[in-house]
């Protein structure tokens, strides 16, 4: 069983929005802090945002602050990333990951292009 499955990626124009979802299964999602990381072609993996277990604390990389919003629904065992005002440099594969790096998704492609 795949522990984390992302969805919601796609092609969007600059300035547009996308909402990523990450469905968790096979572990007690509500007890884990979670994060989103991304990797663009030819670049290293970079942290985007984190949310604490319970959702009370959220943090963002400076390059997405004010544009992206991380959230979670522990009833649905789902992590979200609302991405607004997208830029071409946001194009990457986005992964949801448990904060301790134990559980990873397969990634979803986000392409921002006109």
What features would you describe in this structure?
This protein is mostly beta strands. Helices cover 0% and strands 47% of the residues. The strands form two sheets. The protein has a six-stranded mixed sheet with strand order 2-10-9-4-5-6, with no helix packed on it. A four-stranded antiparallel sheet has the order 1-3-8-7, with no helix packed on it. It starts with a strand and ends with a strand.
Keywords:
114 residues, mainly beta, six-stranded mixed β-sheet, four-stranded antiparallel β-sheet, 10 strands, 0% helix
Number of extended strands: 10
SSE arrangement, N to C: EEEEEEEEEE
Structural class designation: mainly beta
Mean pLDDT: 97
The dominant shape is: globular
> Biggest sheet, strands in spatial order?
2-10-9-4-5-6
Sheet-strand content, in percent, reads: over 45%
Poorly predicted ranges: none
How far apart are the termini?
A: 37 Å
Largest sheet: 6 strands, mixed
Please tally the helical runs, counting DSSP H or I stretches of 4 or more residues: 0
Mind telling me the C-alpha Rg?
13 Å
Helix content range: under 10%
